[in-house]
UniProtKB/TrEMBL annotation, chain A:
<feature type="binding site">
    <location>
        <position position="243"/>
    </location>
    <ligand>
        <name>[4Fe-4S] cluster 2</name>
    </ligand>
</feature>
<dbReference type="GO" id="GO:0051539">
    <property type="term" value="F:4 iron, 4 sulfur cluster binding"/>
</dbReference>
<feature type="binding site">
    <location>
        <begin position="66"/>
        <end position="73"/>
    </location>
    <ligand>
        <name>ATP</name>
    </ligand>
</feature>
<keyword id="KW-0479">Metal-binding</keyword>
<protein>
    <recommendedName>
        <fullName>Cytosolic Fe-S cluster assembly factor NUBP1 homolog</fullName>
    </recommendedName>
</protein>
<dbReference type="Pfam" id="PF10609">
    <property type="entry name" value="ParA"/>
</dbReference>
<keyword id="KW-0963">Cytoplasm</keyword>
<keyword id="KW-0547">Nucleotide-binding</keyword>
<keyword id="KW-0004">4Fe-4S</keyword>
UniProtKB/TrEMBL annotation, chain B:
<keyword id="KW-0547">Nucleotide-binding</keyword>
<comment type="subunit">
    <text>Heterotetramer of 2 NUBP1 and 2 NUBP2 chains. Interacts with KIFC1. Interacts with NUBP1.</text>
</comment>
<dbReference type="GO" id="GO:0005634">
    <property type="term" value="C:nucleus"/>
</dbReference>
<keyword id="KW-0479">Metal-binding</keyword>
<dbReference type="GO" id="GO:0005814">
    <property type="term" value="C:centriole"/>
</dbReference>
<keyword id="KW-0411">Iron-sulfur</keyword>
<dbReference type="Pfam" id="PF10609">
    <property type="entry name" value="ParA"/>
</dbReference>
<dbReference type="InterPro" id="IPR000808">
    <property type="entry name" value="Mrp-like_CS"/>
</dbReference>
<comment type="function">
    <text>Component of the cytosolic iron-sulfur (Fe/S) protein assembly (CIA) machinery. Required for maturation of extramitochondrial Fe-S proteins. The NUBP1-NUBP2 heterotetramer forms a Fe-S scaffold complex, mediating the de novo assembly of an Fe-S cluster and its transfer to target apoproteins. Negatively regulates cilium formation and structure.</text>
</comment>
Amino acid sequence: MSNVPENAPHHCPGTQSEDAGKASACAGCPNQNICASGIPAGPDPAIEIIKNRLSNVKHKILILSGKGGVGKSTLTSLLGHGLSAKNADINVGILDADICGPSQPRVLGVRGEQVHNSGSGWSPVYVKDNLSLMSIGFLLGSPDDAVIWRGPKKNGMIKQFLSEVDWGDLDYLLIDTPPGTSDEHLSSVQYLSEAGLTGAVIVTTPQEVALLDVRKEIQFCKKVAVPILGVIENMSLFVCPNCHTRSEIFPATTGGASQMCNDLGVSLLGNLPLDPLLARCCDSGADFTTELPQSPAVQQLHHIVDRIITACEKSSG
Amino acid sequence: MLDQVKQIILVLSGKGGVGKSTVSTQLALTLKEKGFKVGLLDIDLCGPSVPYILNLEGQNIHQGPEGWIPVYLDKEQRLGVMSIGFLLNSRNDAVVWRGPKKTSMIKQFLEDVCWQDLDFLVIDTPPGTSDEHITVMENLRQVQHCSAVIVTTPQEVSIEDVRKEITFCRKTNIPILGIIENMSGYECPTCCHCTNIFSSGGGKSLAEIAKLPFLGTLPIDPRVGQLAGKGLPAVREIPEATTSKVFNEIVSQLAGMVSNGT
């Protein structure tokens, strides 16, 4: 990456350049003195702290999608339930990095819980013995409270979540993100650069308007060198509960996720059908995988979980 | 640049994927059908959908003597569109920007686009209550005649985020025109059985709790979904659909606002 800060004046020579602080473009820049002093800023010390804090976390997975409302939070919670149900010895943590619209407390059924701060850091909220969650939702007084923050404040919060939550030993840390390719995403990747990200799981729906944004997210992963574990297509088909006709509510006019995966050379982890009962479970915070184990969506989910486990083990060698 | 705009309408939602861009484009198209001169500004920088929905991908923005000239959907120039999508080389290009850069882009969109005389400027926003939203609010503070339409889906998961957006509007003193509930029910094309995939009634009850006008319920209608990518107004293509009726009602309400000058 270039060492020209994003908010630098035009023609900034870059903070590592020999001309740093001395070029004509540096005149008037608030950071001119820092650059001219020649003391390199060095990496953010938080990166090292996060590396130590997460040293007992085996796999760190980002759940991404350029598009909103495709089911990132739903899938994160389902993957959390699915992974933790495999084996009582598998510990899973979920970090909700969606600062402005935290959905995990509701989807996992732990709204209104409190997080406690102790000597060893913030304790996450435990959904099950081996499934824990941290979200800004726990820090808000009322569901109406809006978090009206610009980027730097959101980054600070994510940094705190990564460096100060006492997860204990975890096999999987799933990081649920907001839509887009901006502060939250860049910061998560940057802060985890030393701790080591296992990879990203990308969620999409079949229609072109979603794929359009998801392709941008895949490009983002390539730009910042985050390996892509695979793509999950959500809301693929709808089966009418009355007559069992299958219909495409969000038609894959451009071939859906499978075509996109072919084009961009990423693997497709699976397709989840649209199930109204799943949406209901998310609202009530029930565990869909145990409520409706026979649902086609749950069976698909188990396949996806297995594939993610394999992909994680492969990447860690 | 915005002093020649009679009414600005922000389309907001705390939640993503609820249909902000669909509502924004259909709202703009309906207003245009009714003979108004309309601008549509897409400030979703990381995920611009408006160029695709309106079938304007690959078009370019030109620099005129007075500023950026928006892309026009029609020859009569009654619907002008501005989006970062027009500035990207490829439709797959990602805009990986942090807040400050997004802020300055949006400022440019608000200050440097030559919209000329407009009856309505519809602004499509990304989900959340962060940089893009704060910037727009700060820049529109001096502008009179600015109001917001809030889009939600019926599930509680979505309502929860939308409540935060309402708080945001109240804190920033943006009047809320009302709430639209999208994706309410799906009617099976075979047996006509209506399934409330994402439950139902959430938008209406939210409007009651928040004491806001309820603007209508849009069902999941694949015909409306298929209009995405074509740039055609639902009110002309499928006039009998519920969606068209809701948009017609909203637009006649908006038309009253402009003619009354309020």
